[in-house]
Automatic annotation (TrEMBL):
Record's protein name: Alpha-aminoacylpeptide hydrolase
Family: Belongs to the peptidase M1 family.
Compartment list: Microsome membrane
Chain residues that bind Zn(2+): H140, H144, E163
Any one GO BP annotation for this protein: proteolysis
Organism of origin: Canna indica
Lineage of source species: Eukaryota, Viridiplantae, Streptophyta, Embryophyta, Tracheophyta
Length: 704
């Protein structure tokens, strides 16, 4: 057996029966970072430029799958040493793949533990998205060796100092190691969950009071991780990259081997930059939510007014200090200012007049560096739509215009007709992050439209199929030698989306390739990046009287030892349109064949037809589910994935009634947020059903 702890072994004794290991004494560190791992392991090893031994441990015969994480780990330690101005402080770093592990990873000092899916990568059977996940998670956990381990939060109220900074820094590292992945553009898609969560009445500030240990797990959420990372990015953009890096190095040196709170970081940043950082950032960390800025131009004057953005439409009095960036017709005319009040006017007559042409447009929040939304008046929105169509906006700004319009539509501040008309401008989009968001929008819109306007659902689906056809034809099913990482990831996303939308050609090709792969597991017959698309397509074709495809997927699940492949299959199993098959898939999640850490992955694939089945299943199995998962972080996933998609007030009332005597502190906030999502969906569905122009718009868009 191999035994590991935070520090290296300094003595080993064996008396013929028992092996006794003694470890080097650790430096001062928090008790939650102490770790011991014992098991049968193989490992791969390398050294940093400072001679620090880095190892990746995994199950026997899987060591080759640890080589990519090892390479990332070694390079990341060297990168962080330079960026933070402080070297890694322990003599070794071990990273261990744990087969059963509820969390994604845990940053134990010098002994980081991971799910297998977050650390191992198989060159032949892992998808490009798996490779990226390994890089980002490793960079995140190693960032904690400085932010969290070397300098530790004073109390859980300041959790975001650990998680927000580690998330932000992980993108900084991965961008340095793999610039072709464009992870800062992808960052916008990853942090959208924070904007979604923080638009709820039941959100919470970045800094949230924790009064009991049972409350801690609920703040390990998109607000602490992703909103925290986003406001850090916003602050870095405002202060400048060099000043920000210099300040972080000073902060770490000052608080090494001790505790710090948010105000300590602001004080160092203020001293280094001379800017009112504390005043600026308190409005982002101490109050929940974020603003939407209403913007228009009148007679050469730009008028900007902020109000809190809430999906429910509730009135709140939040007010923020907002670093505003904007440009006029080109990125050469970029301006910035600090919005300090509810509204502000800016004289832009000269810029407007000199830029005025058929290519003129105004874009606020340039490259989406600010944590806020923008609602343009009709004239400015039309100009941006033209700019998108003529490819004048950066990918980040195209993403931002789409995301703001989608969220404003969900909040009933803009019509679905407006959103779909805007999306028609993206018909030749090729950028990974923009396209994947278009896919997410299409899935949400179709889900709500099924309740709101059933007669138009087929037309709406066809519109989205037409939008994705350009990329599907460009990418095809087979990888090309000249393509990059992002095309590999995009192929799977686009084909999976087309299968879910019911595109006949995609489903037929997917099923043909699946059966060839079933007979011969050669990865060339069904490359890893397209397997999810094939698995989802197969599930679209089966029903309770013909479950051959379902059984075939279970066969692959049982025969593979690759965790990523197992999760890919679990993801697809419940995506059938047949309620009987969906119930079989859900029951399989509770069987001994599925690791308890992985069961929630099967809830992600549930479609509209399986929604009621899943809710009944959750109620009937609640006692068992709460017994197995109720004291850990995963119970929230069961509640969120099954409850949040509904879109009726009656179902919201039913959910409240069911959980009235069953809620506990580990998921009480999540339950409130999920029920709020149901009520917001109901409000949105009602708004869509009253959109008088939707039928005419759909006829026009599908005709084109």
């Amino acid at each position: 057996m191999v035994a590991l702890s935070n520090m290296p072994v300094i003595e080993e004794k064996f008396d013929g029966l028992v092996k006794t290991l003694s470890f080097q004494e650790s430096p001062i560190m928090s008790t939650y970072l102490v770790a011991i791992v014992i098991g049968l392991f193989d490992y791969v090893e390398a050294s940093t430029s400072d001679g620090i031994i880095v190892r990746v441990y995994c199950q026997v015969d899987k060591s080759n799958q640890g080589k990519f994480a090892l390479e990332v780990g070694v390079k990341t330690l060297d990168l962080y040493k330079k960026y933070f101005g402080v070297p890694y402080t322990l003599p070794k770093l071990d990273m261990v793949a744990i087969p059963d592990f509820a969390l994604g990873a845990m940053e134990n000092y010098g002994l980081v533990t991971y799910r297998e899916t977050a650390l191992l990568f198989d060159d032949y059977h892992s998808a490009a998205s798996n490779k990226q996940r390994v890089a980002v998670v490793v960079a995140h956990e190693l960032a904690h060796q400085w932010f969290g381990n070397l300098v530790t939060m004073e109390w859980w109220t300041h959790l975001w100092l650990n998680e927000g900074f580690a998330t932000w820094v992980s993108y900084l590292a991965v961008d340095s190691l793999f610039p072709e992945w464009k992870v800062w553009t992808q960052f916008l898609g990853e942090t959208r969950s924070a904007l979604k969560l923080d638009a709820l009445d039941e959100s919470h500030p970045i800094e949230v009071d924790i009064n009991h240990a049972s409350e801690i797990s609920e703040i390990f959420d998109a607000t602490s991780y992703r909103k925290g990372a986003f406001v850090i990015r916003m602050l870095q953009s405002y202060l400048g990259a060099e000043c920000f890096q210099r300040s972080l190095a000073s902060y770490i040196k000052k608080f090494t081997c001790s505790n710090a709170k948010t105000e300590d970081l602001w004080a160092v940043l203020e001293e280094e930059s001379g800017e009112p950082v504390k005043m600026l950032m308190n409005s982002w960390t101490k109050q929940k939510g974020y603003p939407v800025i209403y913007v228009k131009v009148n007679n050469g004057t730009l008028e900007a007014e902020q109000t809190q953005f809430l999906l429910s439409g509730s009135k709140e009095n939040g007010e923020w200090l907002i670093p505003i960036t904007l440009c006029f017709g080109s990125y050469a005319s970029k301006k910035k200012f600090l919005l300090k009040t509810k509204s502000q006017k800016l004289n832009v007559a000269e810029l407007v007049n000199t830029s005025m042409s058929e290519n003129f447009w105004i874009k606020l929040n340039v490259d989406q560096t600010g944590f806020y939304r923008v609602k343009y008046d009709n004239e400015l929105a039309a100009l941006l739509r033209s700019a998108i169509k003529s490819n004048q906006l950066s990918p980040m700004d195209r993403y931002g215009v789409l995301d703001d319009a989608f969220s404003l539509c969900m909040a009933c501040k803009q019509t679905l007709s407006f959103l779909l008309f805007l999306m028609a401008s993206f018909s030749e989009e090729n950028e990974y992050t923009v396209l994947t968001h278009m896919i997410a929008v299409s899935q949400k819109v179709c889900h709500i439209a099924a309740d709101a306007t059933p007669p138009l659902l087929a037309n709406i689906k066809q519109f989205f199929i037409n939008l994705l056809q350009h990329s599907a034809e460009r990418l095809g099913w087979d990888p090309k030698s000249s393509e990059g990482h992002l095309d590999s990831m995009l192929r799977g996303e686009v084909l999976t989306a087309l299968a879910k939308l019911g595109h006949d050609g995609t489903i037929k090709e997917a099923v043909k390739r699946f059966h060839a792969f079933l007979d011969d597991r050669n990865s060339f017959l069904l490359p890893p990046d397209t397997r999810k698309a094939a698995y989802v397509a197969v599930m679209q074709t089966i029903n309770s009287s013909n479950k051959q495809g379902y059984e075939s997927l279970l066969r692959i699940y049982r025969e593979t030892d690759l965790s990523q492949e197992k999760i890919c299959i679990i993801n697809a199993l419940a995506s059938s349109t047949d309620p009987v098959v969906v119930l079989d898939a859900l029951n399989f999640l509770l069987s001994s064949e599925v690791r308890s850490q992985d069961a929630f992955h099967g809830l992600v694939g549930i479609n509209k037809e399986g929604q009621d089945v899943a809710w009944t299943w959750l109620k009937e199995n609640w006692d068992y589910i709460s017994k197995i998962w109720g004291s850990g972080p995963l119970i929230k996933r069961f509640v969120d994935h099954i409850v949040s998609p509904f879109s009726s007030e009656e179902r919201a009332d039913e959910i409240e009634q069911f959980f009235a005597s069953r809620v506990n502190p580990s998921f009480s906030r999540t339950l409130k947020q999920s029920i709020e999502c149901v009520r917001n969906n109901a409000k949105w569905a009602k708004s869509i059903s009253s959109d008088q122009s939707l039928g005419d718009i759909m006829a026009e868009l599908t005709a084109n």
